[in-house]
Specification:
The chain is mainly α and 454 residues long. It has 18 helices and three strands. The protein binds 2-acetamido-2-deoxy-beta-D-glucopyranose (5 copies). This is cellulase.
Amino acid sequence: MHLSFYCVLLLVSYPVFSAAASYDYKQVLNYSLLFYEAQRSGKLPADQHVTWRKDAALDDKGNNGEDLTGGYFDAGDFVKFGLPLAYTVTTLSWGVILYEDAYVSTNLLDEVHEAIKWGTDYILKCHVDDYVFYGQVGNGELDHTYWGRPEDMTMERPAYQINASAPGSDLAGETAAALAAASIVFKTVDPDYSATLLEHARTMFDFAVTYRGKYSDSITDANGFYRTITYEDELVWGAMWLYKATEEADYLSQAEDLYQELRPEAQRTGFDWEQKISGAEILLAEYSSNATFKTNTQNYVDYLVNNQTRTPKGLAFIATWGPLRYTANAVFIALRAADLGIGNPESYRSFAQSQVGYMLGDTGRSFVIGFGENYPTHEHHRSSSCPDAPATCDWMQYGMNDSNYHILYGALVGGPDQDDQYTDIRYDAVHNEVACDYNAAFQGVIAAFVHLGY
Ligand SMILES: *[C@@H]1O[C@H](CO)[C@@H](O)[C@H](O)[C@H]1NC(C)=O
Ligand SMILES: *[C@@H]1O[C@H](CO)[C@@H](O)[C@H](O)[C@H]1NC(C)=O
Ligand SMILES: *[C@@H]1O[C@H](CO)[C@@H](O)[C@H](O)[C@H]1NC(C)=O
Ligand SMILES: *[C@@H]1O[C@H](CO)[C@@H](O)[C@H](O)[C@H]1NC(C)=O
Ligand SMILES: *[C@@H]1O[C@H](CO)[C@@H](O)[C@H](O)[C@H]1NC(C)=O
């Protein structure tokens, strides 16, 4: 634990923490980027730091032989799921756009650019025609019958697409957002790449708006893993990212119109791989002249800070599968609301410190692998559980009590149940898996902390 100072803030309503501890956030930022390196699929670059990972899934291809290598393995498994991947790229990019100085002061700007580009290079490969996009490589069930290294896997890895006759507005909308957000990140550092990203973002957004439907009705293999409830939220979200990237007023008015058309079930607040409304609202709060969006943002964050169910030790508990990820996502929105002077910035920031404190060690254990005190060592994650080749790695490693062989630096695990109970065991995917989407807003929150000088 890194208790370098105590701040005087008293968290009156949750006396479990009498003071907000401080941690080495710069190290957490660095480690989070190492986690994304560990998730890389495809041919790895010479400057890879996580050297126990090797080239993998080099035969990933589309129905017509298109090269679909690269991108990220989703979580503890090796499927490349397009929706959480796009959400990850959008959210990582958002964190860089807002808190770039944090990456500069830690010398990690190149690393985070590479992390984003690892995602966008793959997304560009998947966008094989204006209205054809590969949204998944690997079959969920086939993949999940395997435990071992990605370098050794031999199961079939089919590719699944959305197209004009089998659309996916949520996937296309989120992918448009990812490409647009990344185009902002690369605007000055690589203008040509940025322009390419933006061109694809525009087309992808047209695809999303023109051919309406839920991607999980088209890519049915995604149903058991990342089924969406609505796609309309991603349309508002995609329009707002195109607005931010282009500054064309038409995208802003499109976002406002699409918001107005939302069915009630598409208005559920929240921010995660599936729900985008609270993210879209805070972008609208910044740019729209309609005060509704500020009000909605404040209501969302106020509820989170004052009314959200808490565990006995003070974690705002939003959902049971991978709860820390939902909390980190919500904290990211709360911090952004504070930046914009919405609601009560001071209380939003102290809320953020208490929640991040929980994640990094306030309860006596860290939930970020390789960081701090008593961190998880039995995460549900195949590649890090395996010894180096040529040693065998299979279901034996899954079932054994030993720690994962490699330290998966920087990964935020799922987290505790509603009573703060957490057991560091490999088979508990609900509480002890790790995933690309878990770390995305979390990394943005940590960047915000570095930016704020915490
Ligand atoms: C990030 O962490 C790695 C592993 O501990 C270390 O080698 C590297 O120097 C760190 N980089 C920065 C910029 O802190
Ligand atoms: C369009 O996508 C659907 C769903 O992935 C697929 O079944 C169908 O074959 C695709 N159409 C073409 C022409 O490839
Ligand atoms: C502001 O947005 C809300 C939500 O779409 C809409 O109901 C309301 O009519 C808008 N107000 C104005 C003044 O445009
Ligand atoms: C949320 O909590 C505040 C402060 O305790 C309370 O005044 C308010 O009525 C609560 N709102 C809801 C929707 O539960
Ligand atoms: C693994 O640990 C559990 C709980 O500590 C114990 O019951 C079990 O016997 C151990 N299994 C092996 C193979 O050591």
